[in-house]
Structures are given as structure tokens and as C-alpha cells.
């Protein structure tokens, strides 16, 4: 049945494509196509506008800088434009198909023209897509940062609908979704754990990044695999005109980026590295034991590209990053990501564009304990190999078709434990590997039905298959899975398919123009997710365990509807939007009380599943031009889960439910050399469970949590202010480069935001009987001990570029 549906999708897919191709072949119509690039660096420009004055129509370049527009024969004035660049105009006599590659020159930016978006000024109103946030890397670099480390994910957390779980987390919690429900990809390869330093920094070096876009809703059909949001990060391609260098020196890390042509105007490279050096200073510590400590992380981004012809271009990129902690000789923890992308762009003709991609992702961690009798080494790994084909067919200025296919292979290695030394009492232990395949095929279209109404619609079919080798346990009661309820097992050989899931994922979005400066939009999308993290923490720890859907864990399914009003004021100086959404989520997993996760080879015995829902309102006011720029964002939201066996079957709040979230971001140009920035954030405290008492077990006091009140309490509200000032040097650095100093203060007014609240010193009260465990529990008043992690952090850094 699954393959019948897939075959039907393929039939509809190619029928629609051939029909569209036939309808587009009209007499006296000709096509203008080509690439738009940065004149100084040769980088492709994403989202540049090509506008035909006589027809009052135009198109934008795709994510690879390519454009195509088909119009009737005639004499036309073309305008090529992009924010921050000089508009280039030209006249053409269109009597045949023409290929026109354009290079745009960066404009001299006056103080009154500072922009914070890499989009056309009115695009937030006129484009169909909604629930999408894009930040330029240059804007991200102006936001005050902890330790002076510019951070892409933390910057995204300042936008409406995007929340943080608290200090020391780099996860994105978007519109009621968990962190693992956001797909984070760099150059189209998945990054499974985007954190450094246990969550205080992200793995993305801004010097290597070209563009960042976050889809909170209205997710295009080409994306799949996550039910909450998509974070699409594109690396720079490298300067194909001349050699260039940039970097910075900070209190905890330094970075260096080198780029330049291999063959001028034909191929280029970029190499970008970053490393912390806390371990270097620890070598000089007075305490000899501290000298053995190791504490650092590093990143390395590399990318090459080569243009074989006007129709073929090859890109090869990779990321390598690692964290390493070592405390004397007692304990060590290490984790890292590796990604690889090989991409080939091919132009079949001036309308049909193909991007072929091979992808590799690897996330691994290991930790070791060295003790006289408890010495062991633990390793874990997740790998993905995938490939995809993405076609774009440009029918005419009002109609564009996208279609493609993706296949992926996954290998899960949860845990392998080996004893170290002859005295170790730890036995060798291994949780069996799991293997899976995932397929996705999609078709989407953009249609402009009139000047007021435009629609983007599409459909995706995804298929997930568990494959052998594997041993699947059989339980006497599948609804009440316990280890003592295992009655049999079934073994599958290598390559055998033993469980298949699949289904359709429709997407649609519409925009209706009210007038030249305002519009209303609406969207609906269904998404499916086949991988999830098995963790009872929201912190995004490196030892979190990824598990696939299988016989007992069903894929998560989400349906989201959204509607919004968008308005620009004062010649696009200000942007305002208000969006509301409602999301239904099926097969949400959570853990039983006191679940055993880490070394569990039967993880399904600790999991329960049910439904979830989330709804809210997001407001954003943004100022784009002038000496002072920035935005104010506010989110009101509510998220609930309801799972039989948890909280007595009643709805409860997940940890990341934070009803109120406010962010204010301001940048002010004092002079051409001096700029100041500030941001202020406020969020309702995270939902938590506070112990209600304690009981004795084998002579040890154990905290008691009310099983009918999961996450019924809250941490105190979180808020802080960050400040920074940037001073550019008057003189050229070494006669040709530019240098600048940045001073920043994180948590400037020293707000004590709790990181951990520990309850101790219990005073005995009236006893209760826990009906589930039948133990006596003291209902008592607790004295709390609160740990405040980051009170105030000043930092200074020096940045340069040649």
C-alpha cells in the first residue's frame, strides 16, 4: 500500500511537470536567464531582484544565485537590484533567448541607509512565505555577545516565536516544539548537536556563514524530517576575485578566515577556523592538578567551488568541530560533528535548473572515567548518508515549479562500553546498532493569479523504513511494555525491511495584497518526523540519545495553521507584523517518572506517547533604516501535552512552555567609526517540578515528586540586558586592511538568573502515603539553594579583515 501511494505521487508529479512544460511553450515568448554575483568577491547573491519596468513584473534569484524569466518579445528596461548594492539597469531587444550574468557593486552605505535585512525593502509584504525569519551575518555581528563570541543561534532566539530553554542551551524551541523538532542544516547537511561548551556557544563560525534563514511555519515542500521548524544555513563560497583574510582575537577564542581564487573568476576557496585556548592558560596554573585539565573546542569550515561552464558548477564543503573536556585524570568528555556536502549545479536550458547533492553527517561523543575499579570508555555515534535531486522549472514570471527526491541512510550506535585496566569491575556492554532508510519526494509551485493574490502550494511524500540486521523484541502486552513482559524476539538479516511508515505532507500558503504597503497571509503545513531525541532534559546535552521510529515508536506528525497581517510604514523604514498560529502534534513521546534512559537497551519500555498542541500570537516591529535600527518582538504562547500514564492522563506543560517572551534589539551609529548596540530580553520562567517531600530508600533520602503534577511549578522569570560598543580604527591596517575593537557586557545590570535550584534541609511535616509506590512520604517545607551561572561577563575582542 505504501509503494502504491508513492507510485501515485510519482505519476501525479510527472504529469504536472509535463503539463506545465507544455503550457509554457508559447510562440513569441523568450527567456532571459543567468546568475547575479557580487562584483568584489564573485559570491552568488541570493534573493537579488530582476525587474522589467514595461511589464511591471520580475523574479528573484534562487538560493544558488540563478534566475530565469520568460516574457513576450519586445524592447525592455531591466533593473538588477539587491539591498546594499547599487542598482544596475540595462536595455535589451528581446527577440531570442538570452543569457545575462550580472555583477552588482556594493553601495557606499551612508549612516541613514543602514539596513538590517538582506531582502528587498518591501519583500516582507509582497512575498507569499510567512513565519520566516532571516538575519544577515553582518547584522548578527552587531548584536552584543557573551565573551564577544558572535552566535547565530542565540541571535535567532531574539526573534518572536523562538525561545531558549535557559542559560547554557543552544537549542531552538519554536512555536511549542522541542529542540530536536528543529532541523538545523549547514550547506544542506544536518548538524545533530549544534552546541559547544555544553550549550553556551553554537558550532557556527559567523566568518564562514553567508546566510541564515529560519522557517517557523509555512515550510516549503522541499524540506522534511522535522515537525517544528527548519534552520537553513549557507556557507560562503570564497572570493573568486582576490585573496582576502579576516579574523578576530578574543578573551576565550581566536578565529581566522582565508579565501581567494584558485583560478580567477572560475574557482575559489574559503577556509575558516576557530579555537578556544582556556587549556593554554591552565598549563600555568599554580595548582598542579589543574594543569592536567583540558578544556577547549575548535571549528574548521572549508569550501571549494569550480565553474566548468556557464551550465555546470561544482561545490565541495565540509565542517569539522570538536569539544574536549578533561578533568585531571579522573573524567573526560568529548563530542563533535562532521559534515560533508558535494553539490553540482547543472542548467539543462534557460528554464530548467538542477541541483544534485551528496551529503554526509556524523555526530559522536565519548566519555571515560578513570578510577581504581570503575574505569571504562564509552562511545556513541550517529551517521547519515544521503543524496538528493532538486529541480526548478521557470515557466513564466507568474509561475515557478520545484520538484525533487531525497534518500537517506542512517546508522545509530547508541553505546559501546569497554572496561579500562585489569582492576576495572565494569563489564563490556553494547546496545545494538539500528539502521534505517528515509525517502522523500516533493512537488511545489508558486503561482501569481493576480496583482493581489499569489499562492504557493506543494505536496511531499515521505517514507521511513527500519532495516536489518536487527533483533526486535515481542511483548506480551504492547501497550504496557516492560522487560519482564518480553515473550519472544524476531531476528532480521542485513537489509531486511521490518517496519515501514509513510504519508503525505501537504503545504499551502497564500498572500493577498490590501494595498501597496500591506497584506494578509495564511498558511497550512503537515510535517512528519522519524528521528527524535530520548532525553528528559531540555539542555541539549551532548550525551542525548537519538532514536528512530520503529515498531513501538511511531513517527511524530504535526499540522499547523497560521495567519498574519504585514504592514510597512514611511517608505519601508518600519516593518510591522502580527501572526497567530495553532499547531496539533501527534505521537509526542515523553518518559515515565524515574525513567532509566542512558544504558537502556529496551528504550521503548520507558517511553509513552500521546498528543500535544500549541498556539500563540507573535508581534514584530522592525526599523530598517536610519542611524538607529533594530526590532521589538513579543510572543504570547501556550504549549501542552497529554499522554496516558503521565500526570494522571491530564494535560501538562513541557519544560519549554514559557507564555511571555519579549526581546528588544537596538543598534545606533554614533559616527562612521563608532556604533553602540543593546538588547534586552524577558521570558516567563521554565516549567519545572519541585519536590513535594522525601522518603527513605535503603537508608538514603529520596526526593518525592507528585506524579499528578508534572511541571506544575515555574522557575523565576528570566531577564537580562547586554551592551556593546564597536570602534573602527582610523588608519588602514598594514596599509590595506580594516580593524575594529569591540567591547561588550553580557548581563549588564547583573540580574541573578537561577540556573539550578536545589532543595535541601527538609523540615518534617505530616506524612502521606504515595498510592503508587506505597511508601511514607514527608510533606515538608524545603530550603532552596540556588546556583546563579552568569552574573555579568565583560569581554573585549579585536576583529580585522584585509
UniProtKB/TrEMBL annotation:
It is a multi-pass membrane protein. SUPFAM superfamilies: Carboxypeptidase regulatory domain-like, Porins. Residues 1-22 form the signal peptide. The keyword Cell inner membrane does not apply. It comes from the Bacteria. Residues 148-225 form the TonB-dependent receptor plug domain. Its main location: membrane. It is found in: Cell outer membrane. Keywords: Cell outer membrane, Membrane, Receptor, Signal, Transmembrane, Transmembrane beta strand, Transport. This is TonB-dependent receptor. It comes from Agaribacillus aureus. The lineage of its organism: Bacteria, Pseudomonadati, Bacteroidota, Cytophagia, Cytophagales.
Amino acid at each position: 500500500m505504501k509503494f502504491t501511494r508513492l507510485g501515485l505521487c510519482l505519476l501525479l508529479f510527472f504529469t504536472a511537470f509535463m503539463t506545465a512544460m507544455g503550457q509554457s511553450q508559447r510562440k513569441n515568448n523568450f527567456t532571459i536567464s543567468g546568475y547575479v554575483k557580487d562584483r568584489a568577491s564573485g559570491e552568488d547573491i541570493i534573493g537579488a531582484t530582476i525587474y522589467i519596468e514595461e511589464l511591471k513584473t520580475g523574479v528573484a534569484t534562487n538560493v544558488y544565485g540563478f534566475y530565469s524569466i520568460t516574457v513576450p518579445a519586445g524592447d525592455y528596461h531591466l533593473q538588477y537590484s539587491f539591498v546594499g548594492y547599487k542598482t544596475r539597469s540595462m536595455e535589451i531587444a528581446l527577440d531570442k533567448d538570452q543569457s545575462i550574468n550580472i555583477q552588482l557593486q556594493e553601495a557606499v552605505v551612508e549612516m541613514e541607509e543602514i539596513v538590517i535585512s538582506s531582502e528587498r525593502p518591501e519583500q516582507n509584504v509582497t512575498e507569499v512565505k510567512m513565519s520566516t525569519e532571516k538575519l544577515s551575518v553582518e547584522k548578527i555581528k552587531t548584536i552584543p555577545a557573551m565573551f564577544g563570541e558572535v552566535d547565530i543561534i542565540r541571535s535567532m532566539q531574539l526573534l518572536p516565536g523562538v525561545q531558549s530553554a535557559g542559560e547554557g542551551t543552544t537549542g531552538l524551541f519554536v512555536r511549542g516544539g522541542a529542540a530536536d523538532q528543529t532541523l538545523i542544516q549547514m550547506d544542506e547537511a544536518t548538524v545533530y548537536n549544534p552546541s559547544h561548551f555544553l550549550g553556551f556557544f553554537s558550532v557556527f563560525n559567523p566568518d564562514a556563514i553567508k546566510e541564515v534563514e529560519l522557517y517557523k511555519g509555512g515550510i516549503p515542500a522541499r524540506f522534511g524530517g522535522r515537525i517544528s521548524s527548519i534552520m537553513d544555513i549557507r556557507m560562503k563560497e570564497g572570493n573568486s576575485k582576490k585573496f582576502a583574510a579576516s579574523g578576530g582575537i578574543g578573551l576565550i577564542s581566536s578565529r581566522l578566515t582565508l579565501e581567494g581564487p584558485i583560478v580567477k573568476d572560475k574557482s575559489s576557496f574559503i577556509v575558516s577556523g576557530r579555537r578556544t585556548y582556556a587549556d593554554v592558560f591552565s598549563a600555568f596554573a599554580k595548582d598542579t592538578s589543574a594543569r592536567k585539565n583540558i578544556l577547549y573546542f575548535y571549528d574548521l569550515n572549508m569550501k571549494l567551488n569550480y565553474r566548468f561552464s556557464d551550465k555546470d558548477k561544482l561545490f565541495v564543503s565540509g565542517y569539522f568541530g570538536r569539544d574536549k573536556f578533561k578533568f585531571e585524570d579522573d573524567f573526560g568528555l568529548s563530542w563533535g560533528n562532521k559534515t560533508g556536502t558535494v553539490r553540482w549545479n547543472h542548467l539543462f536550458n534557460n528554464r530548467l535548473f538542477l541541483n544534485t547533492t551528496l551529503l554526509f553527517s556524523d555526530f559522536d561523543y565519548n566519555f571515560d572515567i578513570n578510577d581504581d575499579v570503575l574505569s571504562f570508555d564509552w562511545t556513541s555515534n550517529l551517521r547519515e548518508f544521503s543524496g538528493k535531486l532538486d529541480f526548478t522549472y521557470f515557466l513564466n514570471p507568474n509561475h515557478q515549479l520545484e520538484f525533487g527526491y531525497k534518500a537517506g541512510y542512517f546508522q545509530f550506535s547508541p553505546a559501546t562500553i569497554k572496561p579500562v585496566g585489569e582492576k576495572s569491575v565494569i563489564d563490556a556492554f553494547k546496545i545494538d546498532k539500528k539502521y534505517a532508510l528515509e525517502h522523500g519526494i516533493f512537488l511545489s509551485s508558486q503561482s501569481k493569479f493576480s496583482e493581489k493574490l499569489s499562492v504557493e502550494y506543494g505536496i511531499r511524500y515521505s517514507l521511513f523504513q527500519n532495516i536489518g540486521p536487527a533483533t526486535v523484541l515481542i511483548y506480551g502486552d504492547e501497550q504496557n511494555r516492560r522487560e519482564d513482559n518480553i515473550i519472544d524476539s524476531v531476528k532480521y538479516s542485513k537489509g531486511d525491511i521490518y517496519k515501514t511508515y509513510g504519508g503525505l505532507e501537504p503545504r499551502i500558503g497564500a498572500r493577498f495584497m490590501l494595498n501597496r504597503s500591506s497584506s494578509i497571509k495564511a498558511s497550512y503545513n503537515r510535517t512528519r518526523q522519524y528521528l527524535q531525541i530520548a532525553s528528559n532534559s531540555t539542555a541539549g546535552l551532548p550525551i542525548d540519545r537519538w532514536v528512530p521510529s520503529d515498531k513501538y515508536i511511531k513517527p511524530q506528525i504535526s499540522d499547523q495553521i497560521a495567519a498574519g497581517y504585514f504592514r510597512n510604514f514611511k517608505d519601508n523604514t518600519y516593518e510591522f507584523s502580527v501572526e497567530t498560529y495553532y499547531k496539533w502534534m501527534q505521537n509526542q513521546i515523553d518518559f515515565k517518572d524515574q525513567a532509566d534512559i542512558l544504558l537502556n537497551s529496551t528504550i521503548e519500555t520507558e517511553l509513552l506517547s500521546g498528543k500535544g498542541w500549541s498556539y500563540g500570537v507573535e508581534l514584530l516591529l522592525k526599523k530598517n533604516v536610519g542611524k538607529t535600527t533594530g526590532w521589538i518582538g513579543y510572543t504570547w504562547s501556550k504549549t501542552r501535552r497529554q499522554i496516558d500514564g503521565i500526570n494522571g492522563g491530564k494535560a501538562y506543560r513541557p519544560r519549554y512552555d514559557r507564555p511571555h517572551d519579549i526581546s528588544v534589539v537596538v543598534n545606533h551609529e554614533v559616527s562612521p567609526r563608532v556604533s553602540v548596540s543593546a538588547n534586552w530580553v524577558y521570558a516567563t520562567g521554565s516549567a519545572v517540578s519541585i519536590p513535594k517531600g522525601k522518603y527513605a530508600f535503603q537508608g538514603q533520602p529520596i526526593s518525592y515528586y507528585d506524579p499528578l503534577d508534572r511541571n506544575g511549578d515555574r522557575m523565576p522569570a528570566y531577564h537580562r540586558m547586554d551592551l556593546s560598543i564597536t570602534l573602527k580604527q582610523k588608519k588602514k591596517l598594514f596599509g590595506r586592511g580594516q580593524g575594529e575593537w569591540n567591547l561588550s557586557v553580557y548581563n549588564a545590570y547583573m540580574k541573578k538568573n537561577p540556573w539550578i535550584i536545589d532543595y535541601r534541609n527538609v523540615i518534617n511535616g505530616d506524612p502521606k502515603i504515595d498510592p503508587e509506590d506505597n511508601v511514607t512520604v514527608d510533606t515538608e517545607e524545603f530550603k532552596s539553594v540556588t546556583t546563579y551561572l552568569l552574573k555579568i561577563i565583560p569581554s573585549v575582542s579585536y576583529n580585522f579583515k584585509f
